[in-house]
Each structure stands twice: as C-alpha cells, then as structure tokens.
Prior knowledge:
The complex is a heterodimer. Chain A is of the alpha+beta class.
Amino acid sequence: MYPAKFTYHAPWSVEEAITLMNENEDSKLIAGGHSLLPTMKMRLATPAHLIDMKNLRSLLSYIHDKGDHIAIGSLTTYHQIESSSLVKQAAAILAQTVSEVGDMQVRNMGTLGGSIAHADPAGDPPAAILASNATMVIQSSGGERTVAASDFFQGFFETAVGAGEILKEIRVPKFSGGSSYQKFKHPASGYAVAGVAVCLTKNGGNIGGVSVSVTGVSDGAYRANGVEAALTGQAFSEALAASAAAHAIDGIDALEDPFADAAYRGQLAKTLAKRAIIAAWNNA
Amino acid sequence: MGEKFFGKPIKRKEDPRFITGAGNYVDDITLQRQSYVAMVRSPHAHATIKSINVDKAKAHPGVIDVILGQEMLDAGIGSIPVGWLLDGLKTPPHYAITVDKARHQGEIVAAVIAEDSYTAEDAADLVEVVYDVHSAVANPAKALEGGAPQVHSDAPGNVTFNWQIGDKAATDAAFASAAKTVKLDLRNNRLIPNAIEPRASLADYNRGTQEYTLYTTSQNPHVHRLIIAAFVMGIPENKLRVISPDVGGGFGSKIFQYPEEIIVLYASKKHKRPVKWNAKRSESFLTDSHGRDHVTTAELAVDANANITGLRVKTAANMGAYLTLFAPAVPTYLYGTLLAGTYRTPNIHCEVTGVFTHTTPVDAYRGAGRPEATYLLERIVSYMAQELKMDPAEFRKKNFIGPDQFPYQTPVALAYDSGNYVPALEKALAMANYTKLRADQAEGRKNGRYIGIGFSTYLEACGLAPSAVVGSLGAQAGQWESSLVRVAPTGKVEVFTGSHSHGQGHETAFAQIVADRLGVTMEDVEIVHGDTAKMPYGWGTYGSRSGPVGTSAIVKAVEKVVNKGQKIAAHLLEAREEDLEFLEGKYQVKGSPDKAVSFGDIALQAHLAHNYPADLEPGLEASAFYDPANFVYPFGTHIAVVEVFPDTGKVEILRYIAVDDCGPQINPLIVQGQVHGGIAQGAAQALFENALYDDNAQLLSSSFMEYALPRADSLPSFEIDHTITPSPHNPLGVKGIGEAGCIASTAAVANAVNDALEPFGIRHLDMPLSPPRIWKAIQDAVPAQAAD
Lengths: 284, 788
C-alpha cells in the first residue's frame, strides 16, 4: 500500500489552508484521514498536494454551547462528540450516530467535518446531520457562509463545499425529543448498508414534529419526506410506524453492490426506519 | 518422568514479544544495500501479452532493473513444481513471471527493482503492457462446459485430473436398494486466507561464497529450500539457506513456494544486492493461494431402519489457474478419504474433477479438504435426518462407528485406530441442555422467533503418515519429523525442531514436554526453529502435524539424551546403569535417593569429559527422526444455536458448544486458543467469508472493505470441553487440534441456520448464509408456511 507522490503541507491557519488550496489546483484537505488515506494507498486518489489540517486542531476542535444550538468545530473527533455530555443531552441523535462509526481507533482519529465533507453515501454522520437540521459554516477567501443540511449533501461524494472552501463548523440545533439511529453494518467494511435516523417529538399520544433521514441507500443521504408526512400529527402505534416506514425509499433508486441488491437495501431501509421510529418514540 | 508442565494451561512464552512489538518478522529485517521489488501484475484474468515496454520504468530515477519472464526463462529458472502427483495429472508450467499469457488477475508480468519501495511502486506503474484480453471463467462447473474459455492449451476442457475413491458399483447398488435417498447440490465457497502478516521475502546473495540466504514467510523452510534450490533455480541445496523467522499466521497459505520468492533470489544474484518484497494487502487477496471452492452433488442413502447405506459424491474442485505445491492432494486424498466421517457408511463413492479456471490458485487452507468433506457429510446427514423426521443427534448416534469397532477400516482408504464418539456427543448435548433447547425453539416459533440448532459430529484425520503410504498416494515428500536436542555445559537445553511455529505456540508447548522429561525448568529450554542452517531436515508445520508428529520426534531425541546421561551418571556414581533411575532432574540409585547426580552435573561432565566413561563419546546431544505408523483421528461434537431475523435475514449465533477429543492436551490454554480460532474461522465461512469473482474472473471481494472476516462481536462466548481418547501409536498419545475447530464449525453453523429456516419450508441454502441470501429465500418461500 504505497500512495503516489504528493507534496505535503501543514498550514497553521484556516486562511493559509485556503491560500494553499487556491494556489495548488490538485490539492486535497486531510483531517482524520480515515476515508482519504485508504483511497490514496490504493492509488484511487492521487492528489498532488495534501494539506494536513492537524495544526488547525486548536482552532477547529471544540464543542460549544450556543444557547439554542451546539457549535462543533469541523476537526472535532467522533470520540469527543460521542463522549460529550452536552451532545448526548441536547443532540442525542448525533452522539448515537457517531458512536456507530467504525471502531474506537477510527473514532479517535476520524472527524465529523472530514466525514460530512467527504459525503460517503454509506457514511453514518450525514444521517444525523440531516435529521437534526444542522447548519454548516463554510469559509473561503471571500468570507463565511452557512448552508442548511438539506442543501449540503448533493449526491455521490458531493457537497456544497466548493473549490477553495473549508468546512469550519457544524451547528446542531438543540433537541429534547426522542431520537434513534438504526444501522445495518456491512459485514466487512462496517459502513452502513442502510442507516436511518429519526428525531421526533410527542404531542400526547400523537407524533408532533418528525424528521427522518436515510443513509447508505442512495448516492447521498436524504430526508425521507414520505415517512415524515405519514407520521406527522398521527397517533403513534407500531402499525403506524410500519406503514410510514414503507415510504423510506419513495422516489429513490437504491444502490446495488455485490453484498446487497436494490431490493434488499430497500427492505433494510424500511425495516430500520420502522425500528428507528419505534425507538425514538419510546425514548421521547 | 514427572509431569510438572505437561497438561498445564501455561501462558505462552512467545506472547510478550508478539504483543509488545518485539517480534522479528521478515519485514523487520533490513540488510546493507537492500533494494526493493514491486510487481507489475495483470489486471486481467485472461490475456495474451502482446508487448511490454519497460523504457519509461527503467529511466525512472532510482530504478535498478526491470525483469521480464523471458529473461528468467533464458537464465534457466524453471517452473514452480507440483509436490503431489495424481494419475494423469496435467501440470502446465508455472513460471514466476509469465512469458506468454496472464491466466489470473494479479499474475506477475514484470518485476521492478529499485532503491526504495515507493520508487519501485511508482516505476511499476510506468511499465507499459499491451494485452489482448480474452474471455475468462471463474466458476469450476462453468469451466467444464463445452465452449468455456480454456486456461491451458495442454489441459483440454480445463481438466487437470479426474480422481475417484471407493466402490462405485457397490455404492450404486446401495442406492438402488435404499429405503430413502436424498440429494443436495452444494457450493463450498472460496476463501481467502488473510494471515495477519502478509507474505514477505528478502533474498541476499553472497558473491564471496555463492550462497543465497532467503528470509521468507514459510511454514516449512526446508521444503522451500528443497523445491527452490533443486527444482526451480538449479542451485546446490547446500548453497541456499532459508530462514523463516517470526511468521504471523499461515493457515496453509505459507506452505507453498511463490513466484515472488524466486524473483527476489534471481534479482539478488543478478545485482549482488539484497532484494526485498513485502506484499501489500491487496496483493495478499489476489495472490495468496485461496481455499475450498467446490461445486458438489452429494447423495445419501438409508435403509428402512435409518441406517446409512451409501454416500455418493461428485465434485468439481476449482484449482485456479495453476497447481501449487499440495493442490492436487487437497480435493482428493484429504477430501474423499474423510467422507466416512464418524459413520458406519458401508458404501462410499466419490469422484472429483480438478478444474483449471482463471482465478488465483487454490491449495491447502486450514483443514484442507477435510472441512469440505465435513461440511458435505454433516450437512447431508442433517438433511437426511430432517427428511426422516428424526432428531439429528439421534440419527447420528444410530449411525456412529461403535467404540468396539476399532480399528475401523472405512470404505475410503483410512483405517481409524481409535475413537469413541458417543461420549463427546452426550457431553455436548448435556452442555447445551438439548431437550430444553428444542422446547425453547418450539416455543419461539410460536412467537415469531426463528431459532436453529445445528450439529457437526466431525472426525478429522491429521498428521499424515506414514511416509511410505503418503508417497504411494502421490506425495513427493516424506511426512516424518525431526528434532535435535542439544544440552549445553551449563545444563541449558536447545531443541531444534523441524516443525515451524507461525502462531501455534511451539516455544511453550514443546518446552513443557522437554522440561518434564529432563527435570529442568521451562526457562532452561529454548525451542529453535525456522532456519535451515540450524535445524535438522524437517517437513514443517501444516495439517495439524506438529502435535502428533513433531513432538514425537522431540520425545525420541530427549530419550536418547536421557539414556546417554544415564551412562555418564553410572560412571560417576560407580553404579550399574540398570540400577539407576532418572527422576525430576536427577539420576539416582534406585532406592537410595542420596546417591544421586543432577542432570546439570551430567551436562558439565559430558562436555569436560574429565571423569568420564572410556567408551563413550563426549558431548550431550541427540537427534531423532520420527515417522508415525498412522494418521491421528481427532473427533468431537459441535453444536451451534442461532437465531435468524426474518426482516433483515441476519443470523446471530446465540451459543456455540464444542466438545473436542485431541487426546491428552499438552497445554489446554493453547488447545482452547486453537479451538476458538478454528470455530471463528469455520463459522465465518458459513456466514461471512466469500471470495467473489465476476463474469470476467475479476475478484470483487479484493479488500477488507468487501471480504468479511469475523469480528469479536460476530461471535458468542464459546462453551468448550473435551473428552480424551489417546492415539494408540505415538509416545504422548496426542492428536492434532490446529484445524479441528475450522473443520467442524462450518457445518454446525450451516445446519443451525437451515434448521432455523425450516418453518419457512426452506430445505437448504448455500454458504455464505448472508443476510440478503436468507431474506430473499424467505421472500421466495411459501407465504402460508411463513405465516405461523
């Protein structure tokens, strides 16, 4: 496993990193490296310039209470997030979802920002980002802009982060309802063959607001609007959960790979959606 | 002999160095002026090489050479030979670097030697190969069809051998008169070994002495030396030293001689520099010899009283693109001979066709033929029990070879010398609380829970022997083992063994035996292996032979040392030899323990030879070569309890019970480790592992992203126990345990899953029993049967 030759940079500021990106066309940012390095070792990715963000950790690794939301620096590791009492309490879906990523070694190195900027269609974190209605803060030489989760993921390894831009912060609204992330792991990679995140509020015996997102099934994580519509305002029952979950892949062409064909993936999405709805209701 | 250490669960001496990073593996060795080689490998499974342009690669800074197949052929480097010959076997040449065609993905077409490994890899990308790509075939049954792409022009129809064992006419007659017969089509899925340490080789040619040293990941350094020196490179055997230092697992895959070993030796001589190759994991997937891969039709016949009367088997065995060292033996003599298992089946006939395909060669992989036979037999026995509406344990018990029937001649060549199958089964049933388990299963089914219970009452034959018999079956090798026990003047002991440890814990287990027999401490005994310059000639470690064969050679050599010491002691004590006894490290006059001399004093006197018997050679060492009288026959009962979740098809192993009989256990901790690892590996074949090729014979499961090894959380905590039935023919009565877990567990888990699926009307699913396969089968099953 020998990567092709590249020039290594380790800037000390976000601005310097942006300048390096703008100066070097064939460049790639590296955070925890758990997605990029394997592809470089297989020579599937051969960036001429690698811009290592390790010196930006003091700037971009944090979890801050901002009143109505939690601000998470893009270089914050999964382990920091899953072990944060603030995140566990006020953004439980994110804490639970990142705890399902890889193993402890991976979670000690892998970063939330790295994962969602990479936008692997089988990654776990995008599901939580979508279900929690998070907002992404993106910086370029022209300044900062914010992008809603629903606009952030744009398909197969594609996001709203453009050339010369860095994902700086993830803002996750505080949420006190019930939530659950249900995942079916690929037996080899551990990635999600399908994963469903549900956040919902109770209104007596009825479901109040609900958000449902699906990862692993399509070319990018998506909100399952059909499931949400079937649940919103309805009296909860397991039968309702099942009938609503049947909409998990409405309008979606499910991915196929040697492990799982489209029909099986679709079945998993529905099954996991049902489980996640019930689990979210039970802990709401 | 006191037994202070034998039978004790002593922690392994070697583990501290392995788990603290202090091991010494091939890639840890760096020599002066070392260069590196990267291989240019065919991306195609079947392609004619039209041209190769090496100009750009050679011009790349830091590149020393680019070597092609023709150059090595012209230099007289031969084909890598097959070490087991069958009648009519087709053995097309297998060159280290192919000269005409690529016959599997990953076959080497050029080797780039450079100053460092990165440069070598970069330059390998610069070698321009023009291929004429042909259609390819990966499936052995398809490769036998008319019009299938041909792998070798001198193996028409892709057949390398047709082999059979047993009495065909008698078996056909048994089927004709059977009360009931069943038939199963089975696919034994292909596996990729995945030792934790990738293969690695470092060659160092000394132009002063014309001597080659090859550091390589080998399970049998002497076999490497013999094959490479005498058959491939044409160099005197005493000019090749093979060192196999710490080796991180083999599972069979490091028995064989690989192209990369030949290339580094050739390049080292050519450039008078050390040359190293260390496999990338992606190369391991593509080029370590794979395992299993059978397409089989099996039929079982019973009489009206549910006695098994016949077994008929027809197998197409995928050999891959080339035959490697033991390959022809695996689906024949290690497979067909196991088909009696623990049962009194009077008539067995087995036909095997060895098939070339455009895939990685297939050879011995943990169990080697015996897991394939055991899966087939245990699966069809359970299938028949279900057909007869008999309990699978009862049906087995009814058909077991009785304890009074040994020695038992099977209809497929093997003669079992010992066995006692019911106690192991009864013990496992008790551990499982079987009656309650079946009740729980029935109760669960009422509530939509699908629990399955699977049996494997396996037998295995390991420690192949004796050499003359093995030779008569086609082996171009002996199957005895050697040892040399050398005592230093201070009484410290070195034991040189022809066995090789690549995870087995020999440094501990062998030391336990020697320490007991010499009355010294474990620390006083050093086990030395893995260097042809140090050890006597030995055949190495595979087929669970180190326990029964390797230790026997050690026991014999220790005996000789003790006997010589007795002569010295008699002299020192001025007693007659026969009046002495050797007890706990002391030679003493029988009945007068105060008249004694210690083993340490004897060792010193043997070296000083000052006060010494006149007619005795000085020194204290002895070697022994042990050729066993027979195989050893471990056996046992494994029970898997699984739950299948119909909405995802996922299988969870709830419990796993194993009762194994490997005779007396030298070190129960090591036995448990072998059993645990074996169960995990075998269960993984049933549920997870699968080498998957597409229609162009491209390996789809070519990394850990696609190829699923079992993880700690995929398995329950195993419940294991044992019975002890000693082997009657070796000095310790021990039987091998390295493969038993892997041989038994695949069938137990597969039987359990199929049992769980019974309410859906599903009779048989092939492996791997992956969630999508199970879910689909449930969807396709009759809905009426699934409803309740």
